[in-house]
Amino acid sequence: MSATSHIEWTDATWNPVRGCTKISPGCTRCYAATFAERFRGVPGHPYEQGFDLRMVPDKLAEPLKWGTPKTIFVNSMSDLFHADVPDSYVEQVARVMELAHWHTFQVLTKRADRMRDLLRGRLRFAADLKHVWWGVSVENRKHGLPRIDALREAPAAVRFLSVEPLLEDLGEINLSGIHWVIVGGESGAGARPMHKEWVASIREQCDAAGVSFFFKQWGGVRKAKAGRELDGRTYDDMPCRPSVQPPAQRRRLELVGDVISRSSALQIA
């Protein structure tokens, strides 16, 4: 878990799963894969196995150790709903989020159908938690818009969209049941372009629908120089985050022990 994050819309990251596989155009220039593969073969490094998918049970209890409330991006270096992550392990991650109710968790996936199905079933206990936000990535019309429909079909207290990298004009978007939209362009060498009118269209649709709008970045080869202003201002709107007093350290350590005991007995098949 990283105590701080350079991602503009979160405070910290938590990765009880590492690695992933590419499934759509939004994955083509995946920052996480690029980062992880730099360390393939480095003995003892967390990404010694590069971006190969693997569960990290030792990381399950980490949010419970944090006494200061944070907004936490879950699996910034993976996808919790990847087909090779067992249902039992997904549930363990959700159980930790349920326990760590003083934090706000942001869960983002490109596997929207599986998330919907689990929230209807095995994860139903977590669907209505106001401190757990469930989101999908939306990069284009073909792959992204169907994910929004699947997200809308899932029971959830807070639903959000990460429209990044935005690769084309999305046209009219059905934002019913959506609470937050993040928009951003791709960054780094070879970044695919994003046009202002695409962003402005989404901003206007969010405004009309009463949906919080967050503009993350223009991206490009020089991300810092391009900045994140849209029409002369920044957009940092987010849903309200619950304000909850964390338990005393003694209680949190008890919870950590319980999670470690359960994870030790967990069969990851």
Describe this structure in words.
It is a single chain. The chain has 269 residues and is an alpha/beta fold. The chain has one domain (12-265). The chain has helices spanning 31-37, 62-65, 87-99, 112-120, 124-127, 141-153, 196-209, 223-226, 249-265; strands at 12-14, 17-18, 54-55, 71-74, 104-109, 132-137, 158-163, 180-184, 212-217. A seven-stranded parallel beta sheet has the order 1-4-5-6-7-8-9. Strands 2-3 form a two-stranded antiparallel sheet. Helix 6 links the parallel strand 6 and strand 7 (158-163). It is globular. The model has no long low-confidence stretch (mean pLDDT 95).
Which secondary structure elements does this structure contain, and how are they paired or packed?
Layout: E1 12-14, E2 17-18, H1 31-37, E3 54-55, H2 62-65, E4 71-74, H3 87-99, E5 104-109, H4 112-120, H5 124-127, E6 132-137, H6 141-153, E7 158-163, E8 180-184, H7 196-209, E9 212-217, H8 223-226, H9 249-265
Parallel strand pairs: 1-4, 4-5, 5-6, 6-7, 7-8, 8-9
Antiparallel strand pairs: 2-3
